[in-house]
């Protein structure tokens, strides 16, 4: 088993939280993990991505080769498209529908949707509504993790355990609301 | 011990703690910052009392690390690649003195310039200084290499340069810890001939350094960091550092069997290399950074059996990737999908509410009444004011250059000659330049955009905190021309008035634009709320 995952978003949106939870779950399952992050200048509101690879065999490259990503998990729809060269022919895009507009030339949102539709397998997630339903808008990223869960090569139960571990320091309520958000994400991908 | 998922930078930090360091010295700089931060936050390091506060710049950091080594203790010093330029005087000369307690210098290079102004390759510095260089390929090897580097440093009484790149520093993988070693006892060196680099001593020490070279080469021959991956065929690869990962990725995923020589310790293992090179007639050389060893192996007239960055098999610049390696090895791949034209660029930008925004808005407005605008700037978040909508600066070269370039341009007749520099950059390398301007009574206006932190690298403690006014006064700037403004919209009229007054003044003036970084302010609010 090997999964190549690209997590995409905008600096400050918290894509590293998603990566950390997947990391925890993968390590707990005894898998090999490599996860490349972007630190530094781009974190100031620029496009950021994380290359995350999990496998039951040794992984050499920290970077996902182009055309070999099994999934692009995007917190922002235009950012999903930015990493299209990495997507495998049968790969899937799982993206939140909410645009993050911090540039003056942000394209028409309909045009972005059209382009995503053209890519093949894709799943659009109304993450904001689901996060609200879970009880906290901050669970946006956890919703997206749930929506992507079945494509990550990691058992859902391991991801839930990782969510508990990751949020445990913030208290039981935070854990609970994130588990709820995760579940809502999972439900929309079935 | 439990395996942990660590960034390459964190693996270095953990290994250094476990190697028994008594101090880490560093100035923040991407991609090296996380090393020191990990040690600062480590409870083990805190219990042991390991020194870990930030230094004012890389040179002061290096010299303090050398002093700790003099006292017999192990020390770690970390910086980004351009930081080694700042510390180069200490670095090169510490090869002549040698060390007492183990000293490991970690330099994080940034090929592709993700967060830097060049992609210089620190291995060249290692050669220049005649020091052993270690360039690990993955996170576990990084941990092991740091432990090894400290032993090597003490065995040879030399600093050891550990070179990493952005990708290794900022990528996580599982690392298994080894049994920690105790700190060295306090045991200051008494060997004055070693440490006093008068020519009479330096000549002797330099000869000793050169004498150590064959031994260092011998050590490289048997190092666990250099190894051969057996294979078949007449084509082969020599892979250096992290380049090895990309080579192996392509080799494994395409079930290829070409032989690979992996090199992660320098000086080059002579015998190993010669035996390998003699066997094959087509050798791809894979280096993350400059084609340093490719050039050497290829020779002046260019032996065509060596391919790499110099003949275009790999690009001459930028970071390597599995894709570039596949291409260099002639592997057919699926046509990759294109990025749709609808996707707009999303460059980094100054945060909403950032004080630098107000500084540049005000400065731009004031300049409207002057025939020309020349703003000399520096390294920090405010460099982003080079981009629209601000288009607010004309130069950004190296730490501290804003002040000295403004001074030189003023000497040439430019007026107003304005510099914009951050607080942390000012104490890093701006103070001496300000002294030059004061001594020459140059007509410069220095704006110190003081957000009370080293913001670009994530909000580290600024050595300038609470000291800027006194420093400027102490350096000799007339107090009437040290002005403090609060860069907020409501003050903009008054601020612009002050800017104009000082820009018209034909002497040295400093305007301290003081308002806390919005990122650190918001973090503090969250911490207080807890």
Characterize the overall form of chain A. globular
State the separation between the terminal residues of chain B, measured CA to CA: 32 Å
Largest sheet of chain A: 6 strands, mixed
Mean pLDDT of chain A: 95
**Biggest sheet record of chain B:** 6 strands, mixed
- Which class best fits the helix and strand makeup of chain A? alpha/beta
Q: What's the total number of strands of chain B?
A: 19
Strand content of chain A: 15-25%
Low-confidence stretches of chain B: none
CATH topology of the largest domain in chain B: Rossmann fold
Low-confidence residue ranges of chain A:
none
Radius of gyration of chain A: 15 Å
* Global Rg of chain B: 25 Å
Task: Please state the structural category of chain B.
Answer: alpha/beta
The global form of chain B is: globular
Protein model, in words:
The complex is a heterodimer of chains A (190) and B (530). Chain A has 190 residues and is of the alpha/beta class. Chain A has helices at 15-28, 77-82, 109-118, 127-134, 140-148, 156-167, 172-188; strands at 2-10, 32-36, 47-55, 69-74, 87-96, 122-125. In chain A, strands 2-3-1-4-5-6 form a six-stranded mixed beta sheet. Chain A is globular, with a radius of gyration of 15 Å. The relative contact order of chain A is 0.18. Chain B is α/β, with parallel strands linked by helices and 530 residues long. Chain B has helices at 8-18, 33-41, 43-48, 58-70, 81-97, 123-129, 139-156, 166-169, 192-195, 199-211, 213-222, 243-253, 270-279, 292-298, 322-328, 355-367, 401-411, 423-440, 468-475, 492-504, 518-529; strands at residues 4-7, 21-26, 74-80, 103-109, 133-134, 160-165, 171-175, 227-229, 235-240, 260-263, 265-266, 282-286, 306-307, 375-377, 395-396, 418-422, 445-450, 482-485, 509-514. The two termini of chain B are 32 Å apart. The interface between A and B is large, with 48 and 50 residues. Strand 2 (32-36) of chain A pairs antiparallel with strand 7 of chain B, so a sheet runs across the interface.
């Amino acid at each position: 088993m090997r999964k190549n995952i690209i997590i995409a978003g905008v600096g400050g949106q918290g894509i590293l939280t998603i990566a950390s939870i997947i990391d925890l779950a993968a390590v707990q399952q005894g898998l090999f993990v490599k996860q490349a992050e972007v630190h530094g200048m781009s974190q100031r509101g620029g496009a950021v991505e994380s290359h995350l690879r999990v496998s039951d065999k040794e992984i050499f490259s920290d970077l996902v080769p182009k055309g070999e990503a099994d999934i692009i998990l995007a917190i922002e729809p235009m950012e999903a498209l930015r990493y299209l060269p990495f997507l495998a022919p049968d790969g899937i895009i799982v993206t939140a529908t909410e645009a993050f507009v911090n540039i003056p030339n942000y394209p028409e949102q309909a045009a972005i949707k059209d382009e995503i539709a053209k890519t093949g397998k894709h799943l659009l997630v109304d993450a904001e509504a689901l996060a609200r339903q879970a009880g906290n808008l901050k669970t946006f990223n956890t919703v997206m993790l749930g929506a992507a869960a079945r494509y990550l090569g990691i058992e859902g139960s391991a991801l839930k355990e990782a969510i508990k571990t990751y949020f445990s320091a913030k208290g039981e309520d935070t854990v609970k609301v994130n588990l709820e958000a995760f579940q809502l994400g999972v439900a929309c991908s079935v | 011990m439990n395996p942990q998922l660590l960034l390459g930078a964190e693996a270095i930090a953990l290994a250094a703690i476990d190697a028994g360091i008594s101090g880490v010295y560093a100035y923040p700089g991407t991609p090296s910052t996380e090393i020191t931060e990990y040690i600062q936050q480590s409870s083990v390091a805190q219990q042991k009392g390991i020194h870990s506060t930030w230094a004012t710049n890389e040179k002061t950091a290096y010299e303090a690390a050398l002093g700790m080594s003099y006292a017999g203790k192990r020390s770690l010093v970390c910086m980004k690649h351009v930081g080694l330029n700042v510390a180069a005087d200490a670095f090169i000369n510490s090869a002549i003195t040698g060390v007492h307690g183990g000293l490991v210098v970690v330099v994080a290079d940034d090929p592709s310039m993700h967060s830097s102004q060049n992609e210089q390759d620190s291995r060249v510095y290692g050669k220049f200084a005649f020091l052993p260089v270690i360039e690990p390929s993955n996170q576990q090897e990084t941990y092991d290499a740091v432990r090894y580097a400290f032993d090597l440093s003490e065995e040879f009484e030399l600093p050891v340069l550990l070179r990493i790149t952005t990708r290794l520093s900022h990528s996580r993988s599982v690392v298994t810890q080894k049994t920690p070693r105790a700190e060295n006892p306090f045991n200051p060196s008494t060997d004055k001939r070693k440490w006093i680099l008068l020519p009479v001593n330096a000549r002797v020490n330099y000869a000793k350094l050169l004498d150590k070279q064959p031994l260092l080469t011998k050590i490289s021959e048997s190092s666990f960091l250099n190894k051969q991956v057996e294979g078949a065929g007449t084509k082969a690869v020599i892979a250096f550092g992290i380049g090895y990962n990309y080579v192996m990725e392509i080799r494994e995923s395409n079930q290829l069997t070409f032989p690979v020589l992996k090199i992660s310790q320098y000086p080059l293992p002579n015998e190993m290399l010669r035996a390998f090179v003699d066997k094959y007639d087509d050798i791809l050389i894979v280096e993350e950074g400059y084609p340093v060893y490719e050039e050497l192996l290829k020779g002046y007239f260019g032996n065509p059996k060596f391919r790499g960055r110099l003949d275009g098999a790999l690009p001459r610049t930028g970071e390597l990737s599995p894709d570039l390696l596949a291409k260099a090895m002639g592997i057919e791949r699926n046509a990759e999908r294109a990025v749709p034209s609808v996707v707009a660029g999303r460059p980094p930008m100054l945060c909403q509410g950032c004080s630098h925004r107000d500084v540049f808005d005000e400065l731009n407005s004031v300049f409207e009444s002057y025939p020309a605008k020349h703003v000399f700037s520096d390294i920090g978040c405010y460099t982003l004011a080079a981009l629209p909508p601000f288009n607010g600066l004309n130069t950004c070269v190296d730490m501290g250059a804003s002040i000295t370039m403004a001074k030189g341009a003023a000497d040439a007749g430019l007026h107003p000659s304005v510099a914009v520099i951050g607080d942390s950059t000012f104490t890093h390398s701006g103070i001496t330049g300000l002294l030059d301007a004061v001594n020459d009574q140059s007509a410069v206006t220095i704006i110190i955009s003081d957000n009370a932190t080293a913001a670009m690298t994530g909000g580290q403690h600024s050595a300038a905190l609470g000291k800027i006014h006194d420093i400027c006064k102490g350096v000799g700037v007339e107090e009437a021309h040290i002005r403090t403004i609060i860069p907020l919209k409501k003050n903009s009229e008054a601020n612009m008035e002050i800017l104009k007054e000082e820009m018209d003044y034909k002497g040295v003036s400093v305007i301290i634009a003081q308002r806390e970084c919005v990122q650190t302010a918001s973090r503090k609010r969250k911490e207080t709320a807890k």
